[in-house]
Give the backbone structure.
Amino acid sequence: MPVIAIVAEYNPFHNGHLYQLQKIKEIFPDSVIISVMSGSLVQRGEPALFPKYNRAEIAVLNGIDAVLELPSVYSNSPANIFAFSAVSIIQKLSGVDYICFGSECGDLDSLGFAAEKITSDEFDIKLREIIKSNKNKSYPKNVYDLFSELYGEEKAGVLNGSNNILAIEYLKALKKLNSNIKPITIKRTGADYNASASFIREYVGTNCVRPPNLYNLHGRTQFVPTANLENFMPEPAYKISHELIQNGKFTDINNLSPAILSYLNRLDVHKIAEFAEVLYGDEHRLKKSLDGCFDYESLVRNLEVKHNTSSSVRRMILNIFFDITKEMQNTPPDFTVVLGLNEKGKSFLNSIRKKSEIKIIAKPSDIKDNIIFEKNLFIDNICKLALFNKSGEINEIKQKPFLYNI
């Protein structure tokens, strides 16, 4: 059976994710599909909408055979680190044949051309020079402008679209790792995806946020509107998401606002400069922005400048808050945690366990004395504080993977 890997966040799982799985199964009817999924933090710089074990359960019920974690140290990172860390896990499993990713263009040749040119010495030298003289531009904008100058506006078009950008990073990672894993891309279209994850998150944030005491506490069920989401999510995903929302088991970064602002105010600029994605004097801008700032969203707005996107600002803040250093993010993962699986996925993981070059952790309590793993546990437990309803939560070290018996 061919083994196909997907890098995903499932934040949350929607019809577009199901479409990708269906396409994979059309190409490989008899296959094992695994997903390396972001942990408690996601790439846009915030806690995932739903807890990671719930997201893994939804993924398995919709056709993923095994969900493995991309630890939060790496998932809360820019596209290049995010992609390289995920592909590194896939490579080290020593049993994956293909990696499948969505893209706006659906053209592997165009993506491959971009990946090859961007990783060339010529491009790297010229990009470094441009960044030095264009610090007010974001990194993606500098890359786009240089690529367009060297290879033309038409070829540079492939650098537009968040999925294209990640696809290029996956290809770059495969090349850097000298991997034999074959890439496959599936064109992402509005009709196929129906609604983006961001639309669903925005809907939940706008329509479903309630004070904690209005959720299903003390035996009183409160109605929270989710019916409009039913058209955008497959049935198992909607059913579980609806239940999580009704019970207040979803997050909002603003629930951590007092803790974040309190911690950041205690740090001096020299300490702040140690953390990942703190660049170009961001430590000074952060300290200035904290003066008279008493809520998280205001801090983000104060820090958004031409060279800092909203996502990069949010990631930077969380890297500081969770003490995630540049060194941590530049050290490839040496473990992954099993978050959910079915019998086929369990059989696959058992078959590779002895030859795998990465620790495959069945339960968090199975690993000791690993600094990044300890950091991951800390992040998981703090992210529980971002839930609207924290009742019934347990320490992350006691969690067990979701197992679906087909």
